[in-house]
Amino acid sequence: MAGFGVQSGDLTKTAGTYEAEGSQLIQMKSSLTPGVGAGHVGRKFQGRAAEYKTFFDKLGVSVEKFGKEATGIATRLKDVAKTYEQTEDQSSNQFKG
Q1: What rounded mean pLDDT belongs to the chain?
Q2: Which of 54, 55, 53 is nearest to 41 (CA)?
Q3: Which terminal residue of the chain, N or C, has fewer Cβ atoms less than 10 Å from its own Cβ?
Q4: Whether the Cβ atoms of residue 28 and residue 63 lie closer than 8 Å to each other
């Protein structure tokens, strides 16, 4: 086991979770559209329809951005896991007798 109590496989597994969830969030963006518009509701809502749509547009952008950040974290975690494993291998080879 690595000196920090974490194995590179743990980091890789975590990276996989971030990558999967990030991808799901990015795909979810297209489904974040209001199903109700000004033509579907009463007069009182019609004044708010644009505000309602703007909210959903912002939500979609935020979800997509968060998903992209999660996949970016996954990439960095995979890189860290690879470097960590290489460093551990090199260190353990130095102390073999």
Answers
A1: 86
A2: 53
A3: C
A4: yes
Identify whether the C-beta of residue 23 lies closer than 8 Å to the C-beta of residue 67.
yes
Provide DSSP, 78-95. HHHHHHHHHHHHHHHHHT
93 belongs to a structural domain: no
How far CA 63 is from CA of 28, 31, 35, in Å, comes to 8, 11, 18
Average pLDDT over residues 53-61: 92
CB 84 within 8 A of CB 26: no
In the chain, the percentage of residues whose pLDDT exceeds 70 is 93
For residue 30, being part of any structural domain is answered with yes
CB 16 within 8 A of CB 82: no
Which residue segment(s) compose the domain that 52 sits in? 9-87
Assigned token pair, 16: 């996989």
- What's the pTM? 0.73
Tally of domains within the chain: 1
The token pair at 59 is 């939500």
Judge whether 17 lies within some domain: yes
